[in-house]
Write a structure and sequence with these properties.
This protein is α+β, with helices and mostly antiparallel strands. About 40% of the residues lie in helices and about 20% in strands. It has 11 helices and 9 strands. The protein has a 7-stranded mixed sheet, with helices on both faces. It has a two-stranded antiparallel ribbon with strand order 2-3. A hairpin with a 2-residue loop joins β6 and β7. The protein starts with a helix and ends with a helix.
């Protein structure tokens, strides 16, 4: 029996040392030390030994078990270390190689121009405010002196959710909400998306952007409006730009005007950009209608104000010489990378 135990140890030492994977080591553990293993089979024969031989053989059997267990643990660690080393070698990264430069984006032309416009008006003491794009008919039309029967609504056909809920056609409702909740003096601009039921072409879109401004205080006159807008245009296009005002009609301002600026490309001589006229229509403006002030709880006998609105797309297109509005919405990187 002693010889059998020594043979088991010798065989186990050899096979464990030759094992090429932890799975093979586990198979050898079961073969020699398992419930039906070779060492267990030897130990089951201990009953046949004399009382004097049992302690000797038992001690030898324990030595063999401990030796095989130690061999298994050692070989398992060796194989795991070798596997880890091989994996690290396979996944090795050469840190001396240059890194891949991430693609760097840029601000959309809208955001670039809008940021410039905000800086101009913030420098003149205006605040930037915003409001909901899904608006009530009450704020979008009625408070702006356009009741349900008013013909001016026809030019602002929009998308209705219900009879009294719609997508706003202008950012003027933001002005109304501000006048309702804030006492004069008020000096704000309201940039944002607006919606009208227009067919898509080079100069029209059902979604576009407006920047509207409002000033309400005591003794505000049309000369304040003219001076503010003239400074705005000169800051935007240069000191050499001239402006002119033409009479117009808006339900929410009285008197009202369209403002033109001299063509920045030809200097007013006439070119393809200004269609030979030397002037470019840039925005609409006027003095806030007394009825609108009354609707907002502001006494028109004490306060007066002016308002204006300009399309952001128009300024962006003129700034960069873009002749098709759709290019601004298509997210074509070949186009956007130019800015």
């Amino acid at each position: 029996m002693k010889e059998a135990l020594q043979n088991i140890k010798a065989t186990a030492d050899t096979l464990i040392a030759q094992a090429e994977s932890t799975a093979q080591v586990e198979e050898l553990r079961v073969r020699f030390l398992g419930k039906k293993g070779e060492l267990t089979a030897i130990l089951k024969q201990m009953g046949k030994l004399s009382p004097e031989e049992r302690p000797v053989v038992g001690a030898l059997a324990n030595e063999v078990r401990e030796a095989i267990t130690a061999d298994i643990a050692t070989r398992t660690k060796e194989l795991e270390h070798a596997a880890l080393k091989a994996r690290l070698a396979q996944e090795e990264i050469d840190v001396t190689l240059p890194g891949k430069r991430p693609v760097q984006g840029n601000r959309h032309p809208f955001e670039q121009v809008l940021g410039e416009l905000k800086e101009i008006f913030l420098g003149m003491g205006f605040d930037v405010v915003s409001g909901p794009e899904v608006e009530l008919d009450h704020y979008n039309f009625e408070m702006l002196n356009m009741p349900k029967s008013h013909p001016a609504r026809d030019t602002q056909d929009t998308f209705y959710i219900t009879e009294n809920v719609l997508l706003r056609t202008q950012t003027s409702p933001v002005q109304i909400r501000t006048m309702e909740n804030q006492k004069p003096p008020i000096r704000i601009i309201c940039p944002g998306r607006v919606y009208r039921s227009d067919a898509v072409d080079a100069t029209h879109s059902p979604i576009f952007h407006q920047i509207e401004g409002l000033v309400v205080d005591k003794n505000i006159t049309f000369s304040d409006l003219k001076g503010t807008l003239e400074m705005f245009i000169k800051k935007l296009y240069g000191e050499g730009i001239r402006v002119r005002f033409r009479p117009h009609h808006f339900p929410y301002t009285e008197p009202s005007a369209e403002m033109d600026m001299s063509c920045f490309k030809c200097g007013g001589k006439g070119c393809s950009l200004c269609k030979g006229e030397g002037w470019i229509e840039i925005l609409g403006c006027g003095m806030v209608h007394p009825k609108v002030l009354e609707n907002c709880g502001i006494d028109p006998e004490v306060y007066s104000g002016f308002a204006f609105g300009v399309g952001l797309e128009r300024i962006v297109m003129m700034r960069y010489g873009i002749d098709d509005m759709r290019l601004l919405y298509e997210n074509d990187l070949r186009f956007l990378k130019q800015f």
